[in-house]
C-alpha cells in the first residue's frame, strides 16, 4: 500500500508518516507543493523517524515549478544538487518523481532530463496523464512522454489518477507499446 502524503509543516509530515507506516504503508510519495517545503528538507526530516526499508520507499516529487532557480541553468544546478544530497542521506530514497508543474515552464522536465550531465544514483520517474479528453492534447502528452523516455534517464512512469476507464485502457495500451519498444533496448524494463 502506497500513500501520497502532503503535510502543512515538518512535524505534521513526520507524525503522519509514522502513523501511515504503523498502519502498514509500504511507501510514501512526498509532493513538492511550495518553494519553502523542499523535497530534500522533507527527506531529511524523515531520516530516523522511519525504518530504512520505509525510507528507501519514500518517493520525493521534485517540481521544477517550485525549484526554478531563476533560469534553466539555475534549475538544473538545483536539481543536480538535490540528487547528490538525496543520494548522500544515511538512507537515500531509491527513486524520485520529476515533474514540470502545472502551466507552461521555460525549463521543464524534458529539458531537465536532456541537460543532465550524468545519470543520478537515484532513479527518475516521470508523470503521465492518460485521462486528457481532447485527442490533440492527449497526443501532446504522449509525445512529451516519448521525449522524456528518449533521454534514457527515466526508469518509471507514474500515472495520474482518474476515473475514465476507456481513456485509462487506451493509455495503458499506449504504455504497453512503449514497454515493448523499450524491452529491445539495453536500458531495462520500464516500471509503471
What is the subunit organization of this protein? single chain
Tell how many strands the DSSP assignment holds: 6
Radius of gyration from CA coordinates: 17 Å
Strand order of the largest sheet: 1-2-3-4-5-6
Spatial separation of the terminal alpha carbons:
15 Å
**Beta-strand level of the residues, as a percent range?**
15-25%
* Helix percentage range: 40-55%
Structural class: alpha/beta
Order of helices and strands: EHEHHEHEHEHEH
Mean pLDDT over the residues: 90
Give the overall shape, derived from the CA principal axes.
Answer: globular
Uncertain runs are none
Q: Can you count the helices?
A: 7
Biggest sheet record: 6 strands, parallel
What would you say this structure looks like, in words?
The structure is a single chain. The chain is an alpha/beta fold. The chain has seven helices and six strands. It has helices at 10-22, 39-46, 52-56, 72-87, 109-115, 135-150, 165-183, and strands at 2-4, 27-30, 58-63, 95-99, 123-128, 154-159. The protein has a six-stranded parallel β-sheet. The model has no long low-confidence stretch (mean pLDDT 90).
